[in-house]
Design a protein that fits this description.
Layout lengths: L8 H54 L7 E3 L6 H8 L4 E7 L2 E9 L5 E7 L1 H51 L10 H4 L7 H46 L5 H28 L2 E2 L2 E5 H12 L3 E7 L2 E5 H18 L4 E6 L2 E5 L7 H6 L16 H12 L2 E6 L5 E6 L8 E2 L7
Parallel strand pairs: 7-9
Antiparallel strand pairs: 1-4, 2-3, 3-4, 5-13, 6-8, 9-10, 10-12, 11-12
Length: 424
């Protein structure tokens, strides 16, 4: 039987704990009641049997006939009582007599014989048995009721915890508008428990994170837009410089600044989450060859299995172009682009991706190992892949080298897609 999502390990453990504690408490109280009532009942029967034994002893010593239930050395007398009476002592014992529970009392008689009295103990035995059944029944009823009440209380908590965890997963997936809105946390008049504190802390963290990311996005967009105008003038001025090595250096740096500005603008557009797709049917093999030709690099294209997909050609070319350029810029030849159905891989034979990139994905303006660049190429590739509805993974090959795997969706994405809200 499959439990609901909110009935996880915590609810099961709590139910087991409540059940065990209820059983232990019921067993302890039942044992105390049983022992107390049994001692009282057995004590009353023992006092009655000893009183009748005293009357029978007086009659025996006076030579009068013994009353019913009394006798000398009866055959049904339990052997321990017989030996006790032979030693000159008196005692009592419960045993079966003619199929009925009987309280026996025995004492010494002349000639080493035993004078014994039998008192019917059936009513007292039924009373104790009835008490035991009542204890078991009431304990089972109490355990069941307590378990239901406890399970209801625990599942209310686990539902709230599950809702908090679901919102946390939505936030980690990029939905920074998600909030728990726990009713206890929003009502100061109600008692605040630990779940409400966690929910309030999560909402506060999400709001703070959203504010910081929005500020970062606005800053990126503003910087990119402010740089375009002076860069356009700088580019025009560089074109007017006389030929020479200094002019080539200036034009090269201006081109690098323009590329960086365009990358920042593209990232800012992805951050807004309002990118529109222009879907068309494309053959991946032909598209991969166009990307390699446009890159001007010596990249090997391997076509294992061609596939026709419905995607945004410009964005897909941008993703593959960035992956190929990154392989040549930061890795070593040979760089191989492989098409295997809807899966496209780009592998180089360099030192591989840094550990942080494999674990957490590309980060803006972060490079390691003396690599050149600003860390924006893979960030843009990841953002465009998310817009396409594709999955882009980064790993290191066992034999060395970086491997980027792009898996295109089986069904075409919507024409309006949201990019990464929080950035890569």
């Amino acid at each position: 039987m499959r439990l609901p999502q909110w009935a996880g390990a915590l609810a099961v453990k709590a139910a087991l704990f409540i059940t065990v504690m209820c059983c232990a408490l019921a067993a302890l109280l039942g044992a105390l009641v049983h022992v107390s009532v049994t001692n009282q009942t057995v004590g009353e029967a023992r006092d009655l049997a000893l009183a009748r034994l005293a009357d029978a002893t007086e009659a025996y010593e006076a030579g009068d006939p013994l009353s019913a239930g009394a006798g000398i050395d009866p055959g049904e007398l339990p052997e321990p009582l017989r030996e006790l009476a032979a030693d000159g002592q008196r005692g009592t014992m419960v045993a079966d007599h003619r199929g009925r529970p009987t309280m026996w009392a025995a004492g010494p008689a002349e000639g080493g014989h035993a004078l014994a009295v039998a008192v019917d103990y059936a009513q007292q035995a039924r009373t104790i048995d009835g008490l035991d059944r009542a204890i078991v029944g009431s304990s089972a009823l109490a355990i069941g009721a307590t378990l239901l009440v406890g399970a209801f209380a625990v599942t209310r908590v686990t539902r709230r915890l599950h809702a908090t965890a679901r919102v946390a997963r939505r936030i980690s997936a990029g939905d920074l508008d998600a909030r728990v809105h726990d009713r206890r946390a929003g009502d100061p008049g109600r008692p605040q428990d630990e779940v409400a504190a966690v929910a309030a802390a999560l909402d506060s963290m999400a709001a703070s994170l959203q504010g910081k990311l929005l500020a970062e996005q606005r800053f990126t967009a503003d910087v990119a837009h402010e740089l375009r105008t002076p860069l356009t003038g700088l580019h025009a001025a560089a074109e007017l410089l006389p030929p020479g090595r200094p002019t080539e250096l200036v034009r090269d740096r201006v081109a690098a600044l323009r590329t960086l500005t365009e990358d920042l603008l593209e990232i800012s557009r992805l951050d807004t989450g309002r990118e529109r797709l222009e879907l068309d049917s494309e053959e991946l093999g032909a598209l991969a060859r166009r990307v390699v030709r446009a890159s001007g690099t010596e990249t090997e294209v391997r076509l294992v299995r061609d596939a026709r997909v419905e995607t945004d050609r410009r964005r897909l070319e941008r993703v593959l172009g960035n992956l190929v350029a990154n392989g040549h810029r930061h890795g070593r030849a040979p760089v191989v682009l492989t098409v295997d159905g809807p899966v496209v891989t780009v592998r180089d034979h360099g030192d591989g991706y840094p550990e942080y990139l494999v674990a957490h994905g590309p980060q803006r303006f972060r490079t390691e190992g003396g690599a050149r660049g600003h860390g924006l190429g893979l960030t843009i590739a990841l953002g465009q892949a998310e817009v396409l509805g594709a999955r882009l993974r980064f790993a290191n090959a066992p034999g060395g080298g970086a491997v980027a795997t792009l898996t295109l969706p089986a069904t075409p994405p919507r024409r309006t897609a949201a990019g990464p809200r929080g950035g890569a």
